[in-house]
Amino acid sequence: MLVRRNRYRRKRAVADQLSRLLSRRAFVASATVLVIAAIVLVAADTGVPSTPTVTARMTGALSAPANWKLAFSTDFPGTSLDTSTWAQCYPWTPKPPGCTNFGNADEREWYLPSQVQVENGVLALVAQRTPTEGSDVDGHLKTYTCRSGMVTTYPSVHFKYGFVQVVARLPFGKGLWPAIWLIPSDGSWPPEIDIVEHWDTRPTAQATLHTGKQNVQQRGTVDFPDADQGWHTYTLYWTQSRISVYYDSQLALTTTTSIPRQAMYLLLDLADENNSPGSCSGTMYVKSVNVWEPS
Hints:
By secondary structure, the chain is mainly beta. Helices cover 12% and strands 42% of the residues. It has two helices and 22 strands.
């Protein structure tokens, strides 16, 4: 499927970027800073995970297992992003200017901190069709047709196993590619956990687990035609022996094979894969992010 091949090239470029960065820097020093700066949420798995249950707190949402504790929570208060918790660029990119997009030819946006906004308790990642100066994967100047926003928890929150819930509204529009996903804190890839990806105005959304040197994929595609209407809850249930992904209370993907067993961090972004007229116009809204861990 063309979209998945595009996604693979995107991830392959992540690995290439990280490899070049780590070869130029002292890995031990970087790892030391990471350990000091991060709130690492590492929990043992009993091997018999309890099951998430439907709760009346939010229509269609799931509640964390009763014996798990809330380890991280935010509903985006104030009028600016808490940069002690969130980064507005990928951790391996130089700044300023901008944040890059892996240097991937399949993406047409250039990420900028100015496209990340907080207002009335909501995080907004704004894609605009505005020519924007950036660079290619080799550092040469390049003009992108689109600018957009992204955030990661790399500065503060890394966790191994967890019950993750993101309440969001995904934009539908030509070329738009919103995603909520996790990658390893140590800079390796794969694995990767894509909680949700959506493309253009399609009536479906997709969850994917990427594993193995050849990017073996386990994928679930579900009908989700109203992801751009109202608020929806995207849930990842990740233990040592199982991964399950839910959209509201609908199961999108579940597996017990090739489960990642290393600390990871969360990313939310609004990419664009089309530079034709009418593309790259929309906003991804995020109302809250919560992470529970086993007690």
